[in-house]
Design brief:
- About 35% of the residues lie in helices and about 25% in strands.
- The chain is globular.
């Protein structure tokens, strides 16, 4: 079966290909099919993931898998949330976003946070056409950046059980324990069940 992964990020495509290998499907990115990304104007991770999945499936005619994810900080009432990638502005760098977040929590002892990912499988040719899964990775925001093996908020996302930030723990840890890995595992179980 041909399935679109609703992303132009080739790193993300490879990650999904690896995690979803048991399905034995052919995966394509938006780039492979010449599809532009839609405007994400939902107010939740679920809504944005659904917008992306429906957009990719409608244009390609194939089922699509999309994800939306971000960092939710308790003290900031869940911010940056769906605005995680552009927290410090539309074309903000990872460093800009991290700096803004660290400044928002200056002198703050309540630093609990979670990375959240919502995944949607949308099949335009099926009655039960939406399957969803959510994954969370709990942690807290460090006082400054540590580690170089990561991107986004990884250098300031501290996992107390490991006594390290995600950027210090590296890809192997992240591929097993990240919010996206957890959500993908749940979605994979649902898809294998559907397939059987």
């Amino acid at each position: 079966m041909k399935v679109v992964i609703a992303t132009s990020n080739l790193g993300k495509l490879k990650e999904f290909e690896t995690l979803l290998a048991p399905l034995d499907w052919e995966f394509y990115s938006l780039q492979d099919l010449g599809i532009d990304s839609p405007i994400e104007d939902g107010s939740t991770f679920f809504e944005n993931a659904l917008i992306k999945a429906k957009h990719a499936a409608t244009i390609s005619g194939y089922p699509a898998i999309a994800d939306d994810s971000g960092l939710c900080v308790d003290y900031l009432n869940g911010a940056p949330g769906i605005k995680s990638a552009r927290y410090a502005g539309e074309n903000a760098s990872d460093a800009d976003n991290n700096l803004k977040l660290l400044n928002s929590l200056k002198n703050q002892t309540q630093r609990n946070a979670a990375f959240v990912a919502c995944l949607i499988f949308f099949d335009p040719n099926s009655k039960e056409n939406i399957l969803s899964a959510e994954g969370r990775l709990e942690g807290e925001i460090a006082k400054k950046s540590y580690g170089n093996d990561g991107f986004g908020y990884d250098p300031i996302f501290f996992i107390s059980d490991e006594n390290k930030t995600l950027a210090e723990l590296g890809k192997e840890y992240k591929n097993k324990n990240s919010h996206r890995a957890k959500a993908t595992k749940i979605l994979l179980e649902k898809l294998l069940k559907e397939k059987s």
